[in-house]
Inverse folding.
């Protein structure tokens, strides 16, 4: 009897000590109320890559892999919770990373990135860095490396490249199914269900969703299925529900805006008097005379690589998101290629950009985009515009090339229809965003009755930390204060590479 009582007493004492430890970790030992801890959570010290530290909680919620299957296996959705710094917290603020495929937790960890914003928003409620299903700590899915290679000693047409990627995607579907993975569980609709489960897990009536790029796509989908459980939306670089594939003509309009910036910088204007013309000339030359460069594979073996027009379009598509980062290097690369100088291209190859010979896929980014899909009307428009557009159909590659490749995955017309919502919404748009464009962002929320759009002039896709005014605007919005400033101006990017 004494032994049993001792075990119970010891268990009780250990529980008290663990709770006190969590309270001390959070710096709240002297407060009257202990910190709230939810199921499946543990107190941690969260560290950024530049060694900033803050007390937080690491947790997870268990959800079905496929909510449409009664016998679905369970998976875990992980998160890090930064507790509110106010005594009267509002709704939990859930950060939704872009991609699809980005990790919310890694976003908070990155040095000199968005961590200060995570910390600043705690004055309104708990801030949650979420790893969506199939991302970050919520990703237990193996990467698929197909048996299909795009490396070729001869030129390939766009149709041939698309065919190779479709074959590779089907190989990977078989690979994942053989691992017991239900690929139909990895769609935006399934992720919306995760948000609602997370809301219940946090015992919250409503959530505030803070997303960027694909994260806004997920947030817009949530307005359809859980509208009464949303408090506010903070959406940066919005991707609408039928905007997984961007219109090529809008990318051409983006390059026209780039030209306007170039024209304000006399030295840059001398080098790039006609950006669109430069791009077209280089593509035409690569179409007739592709360039042979040398690459090194993962085993350290060197081989020749035929760099073609479609490679350049894909490379450019990955470099135009932000004018303050990749754009000046892209312009310099185009100019060097027109001059017959291949050393800058070889430097890109030396960094391993073309070394992966076999087509490989991560499951979540692949299936999320295929499931969100594209409407027939928009697809016809994309195909028409791609014939003459600067980057063709490669901005969102491998979509729309993989549209419909997985039977039964497409979420359909109802999913892609415009959302109608009265949830208070703040839209933040960069005027020089090379991936999601201000006008298309307005279109995505045109049926929202309580939306405020703020343009960050001269900013690109990753605009959240481009100016302290962005943080101030978000704080005013969350505090229910009027957002009177409809434009925030940041310095123009320098489009010349400093030597």
């Amino acid at each position: 009897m004494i032994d049993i009582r001792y075990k119970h007493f010891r268990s009780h004492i250990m529980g008290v000590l663990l709770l006190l430890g969590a309270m001390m970790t959070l710096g709240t030992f002297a407060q009257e109320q202990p910190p709230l801890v939810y199921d499946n959570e543990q107190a941690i010290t969260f560290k950024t890559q530049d060694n900033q530290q803050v007390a937080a909680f690491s947790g997870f919620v268990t959800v079905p892999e496929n909510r449409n299957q009664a016998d679905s296996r369970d998976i875990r959705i992980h998160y890090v919770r930064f507790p509110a710094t106010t005594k009267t917290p509002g709704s939990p603020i859930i950060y939704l990373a872009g991609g699809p495929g980005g990790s919310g937790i890694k976003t908070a960890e990155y040095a000199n990135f968005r961590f200060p914003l995570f910390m600043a928003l705690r004055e309104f409620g708990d801030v949650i860095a979420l790893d969506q299903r199939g991302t970050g700590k919520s990703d237990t899915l193996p990467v698929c490396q197909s048996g299909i290679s795009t490396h070729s000693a001869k030129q390939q047409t766009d149709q041939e490249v698309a065919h190779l990627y479709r074959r590779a995607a089907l190989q990977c579907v078989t690979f994942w199914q053989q691992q017991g993975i239900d690929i139909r569980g990895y769609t935006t609709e399934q992720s919306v269900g995760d948000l609602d489960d997370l809301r219940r897990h946090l015992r919250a009536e409503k959530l505030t969703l803070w997303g960027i790029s694909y994260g806004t796509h997920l947030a817009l989908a949530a307005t359809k299925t859980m509208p009464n459980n949303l408090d506010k939306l903070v959406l940066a670089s919005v991707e609408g529900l039928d905007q997984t594939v961007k219109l090529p003509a809008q990318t051409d309009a983006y390059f026209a805006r780039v030209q306007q910036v170039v024209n304000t910088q006399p030295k840059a204007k001398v080098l790039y008097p006609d950006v669109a013309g430069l791009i077209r000339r280089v593509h035409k030359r690569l179409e007739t005379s592709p360039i042979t460069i040398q690459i090194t594979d993962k085993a350290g073996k060197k081989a020749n690589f035929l760099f073609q027009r479609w490679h350049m379009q894909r490379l450019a598509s990955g470099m135009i998101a932000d004018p303050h980062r990749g754009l000046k290097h892209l312009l310099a690369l185009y100019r060097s290629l027109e001059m017959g100088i291949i050393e800058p291209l070889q430097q890109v190859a030396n960094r391993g950009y073309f070394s992966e010979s076999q087509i490989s896929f991560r499951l979540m980014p692949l299936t999320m985009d295929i499931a969100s899909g594209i409407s027939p009307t928009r697809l016809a428009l994309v195909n028409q515009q791609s014939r003459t557009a600067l980057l063709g159909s490669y901005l969102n590659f491998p979509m729309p090339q993989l549209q419909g490749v997985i039977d039964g995955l497409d979420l359909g017309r109802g999913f892609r229809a415009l959302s109608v919502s009265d949830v208070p919404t703040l839209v933040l748009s960069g005027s020089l965003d090379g991936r999601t464009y201000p006008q298309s962002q307005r279109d995505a929320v045109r049926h929202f009755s309580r939306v405020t759009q703020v343009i960050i002039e001269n900013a690109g896709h990753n605009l959240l930390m481009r100016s302290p005014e962005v943080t101030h605007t978000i704080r005013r919005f969350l505090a229910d204060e009027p957002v009177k400033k409809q434009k925030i101006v940041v310095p123009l990017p320098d489009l010349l590479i400093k030597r």
